[in-house]
Amino acid sequence: MEHTIPFTSTNLMEVVSAMKLDQAFRFSFFRLSLFALLASPAAAQLSPGFYSFSCPNAELLVRGAVRSASAIDSTVLAKLLRLLFHDCLVEGCDGSVLVQGNGAESSDPANKSLDGFYVVESAKRLLEIWCPGTVSCADILVLAARDAVGLSGGPSVEVPLGRRDGIVSSASDVRPNMVDTVFSLDQMMQRFAAKGLSIDDLVALSGAHTIGSSHCRTFGDRFQQTSNGSLVPADNSLDSNYAMELANKCFASASDSTSVANDPVTPSTFDNQYYANLLANKGLLHSDSILVTDLRTKSRVQAFAQSQEKFFASWADSFVKLSTVGVKTGDQGQIKVSCTSM
Question: Which cysteines are joined by disulfide bonds (predicted)?
């Protein structure tokens, strides 16, 4: 079912109210040394104050749209964060995952379960009223994902802006770039390294799984189906009781849409519980569990499990790096009027 956020006088008042509440929202605002992190020439053209004169309320308007959407459906916050990952890891953070249509990135089977597009499009329509042809869909998605984390209890990160929208969105580009849940650590590291992200970034950004849910099919490789149609654990790295809980929720005849919370303890709160879950052998996906079974990443998992402050600081750094992967700036790309069309 398609979601929309109607533009009524009440809705606009909510957005204005969101602007007034911004000061309170910033209590968790991390001031980063951004430019030390921006390695590529294109990324170096980004700036936190890019819209200071051309559209000074851009961030507040996006935040208002995200807040309004989450008041209706709280699960959209995790969906927006996932949407950004699937954008940045393919063509770079250029909004190309938002494009709809046959052959576009969103049509690839790996992206079929993505959601939250309507929030970005709603924010874009609002920005086209206030600042026509100014704010890119790529920047809106970065801001929406950033705010989704903050509204879930996580840190709000100052991100550089000025991305332009890509002019290519091809389903054939998805699989060669996307990280699969059955990957080994070496395979994940290779995909991240290709985007300029380190093994430390991999561990920190995996913390995104502290919110949201995953369809049963994404961890089906960790179970075997018996002759009577029930599922039994096939992965000894899973806590036995947790494995049985998953098997009961994801029985063989369960619908393809059946999903399970990524974090069984605090599923809607962005915190460091994800890492404590890993140490308790309760990582939902194989790509989660591998972080604690491999010595190259285990110490980092332990550190984040012990200190939420340390996790939040590392998340902030790694999120900024992710948000600058493959960006288009200057005369590259375009500023689209609609995020879902090319």
Answer: 55-131, 88-93, 137-339, 216-250
Q: Using CA atoms, how far apart are residues 312 and 341, in angstroms rounded to an integer?
A: 35
Residues in binding site: 87, 90, 92, 94, 96, 105, 209-210, 263, 266, 271
d(CA 211, CA 272): 10
Strands (E), 178-233: 213-215, 223-225, 231-233
Joined together, the tokens standing for residue 78 give 């995790």
Distance separating alpha carbons of residues 297 and 272, to the nearest angstrom: 16
Whole-angstrom distance, CA of residue 205 vs CA of residue 315 = 6
Does residue 286 carry a catalytic annotation? no
Would you place residue 111 in the very low, low, confident or very high pLDDT band (cuts 50, 70, 90)?
very high
| CA 25, chain centre distance (Å) | 20
Q: Which residue has the tokens 């200071």?
A: 52
Enumerate long-range contacts of 243-246, CB under 8 Å, 24 or more apart: 246/216, 246/219, 246/222, 246/284
In this predicted structure, what is the pLDDT of residue 232?
Answer: 80
What is the structure's pLDDT at 253? 58
The mean predicted confidence, pLDDT, of the chain is: 89
pLDDT, residue 224, reads 84
Q: What is the number of other CB atoms lying within 10 angstroms of the CB of residue 156?
A: 18
Q: pTM value?
A: 0.88
Amino acid at 132: P
Please identify which of the residues 3, 86, 215, 286 carries the catalytic annotation: 86
Please report the pLDDT score of residue 258 as a whole number.
Answer: 87
Phi first, then psi: what are they for 215, rounded to 5°? -70, 150
Per-residue pLDDT, 88: 98
pLDDT of residue 54: 97
